[in-house]
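Bumping with the actual sequence this time:
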Amino acid sequence: MTRLRIPDEIRACLFDLDGVLTKTAVVHAAAWKQMFDDFLRRRDGERFRPFDAVDDYDAYVDGRPRFDGVRTFLAARGIVLPEGEPGDPPERDTVHGLGNRKNLLVLEKIRKDGVQAYPGSVRLVVAARGAGLATAVVSSSANCQAVLAAAGIERLFNTRIDGVIAAERGLAGKPHPDTFLAAARDLGVPPAGAAVFEDASAGMEAGRAGGFGYVVGVDRADQADALRVHGADVVVRDLADLLREEW
């Protein structure tokens, strides 16, 4: 028999997508780097300072809604661009244009290489459902549903709050707790009865700000200390670490 190493009062599990359920965080980081480096090279010439796919990604874009990521990174570099419009073409140097360019790059990489789920994460989700817990995906990605379907895990979740649904409902993105709170409401579980599973500092902050019963940091990039500082109750390398086999 498989038991979960999470508090007994937890009745729902709320999972981030990229880097927690699927191996797409590295795809996003590569797309952000390609997009920002192209922009910075055009702006500053060959002496431009590149986007760091680890440090800049973690600090400014990971876990945030796409356009917030653009704004946050540009602000860190002291760069001000017009907002533009949601439909701006990807070659336009506006916040929306750069965000749309990044999204095209991600979709191209996913179409080319496909999507894989972390086996340990799938094991935990299946075990949680087998124990009677509700499950949700909470992601800032507008491509969440397509990624879940490509990874073959779409049916493992009772509800999904992603970038599309957040926009429809007017929910603030991470590090605000709004999307996680919406998922808990959809599942009929109070925040104290839900666990948050995240790999980004912004997600840790959202979990802590929302008053959730358990906040799990998934350390995919040797940032365990940062995850704890930003609110993790526990940090694991793989979600299978939260499973215990009993006979």
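The tokens above came from a reply further down the thread. The chain has two domains: 2-24+116-245, 26-113.
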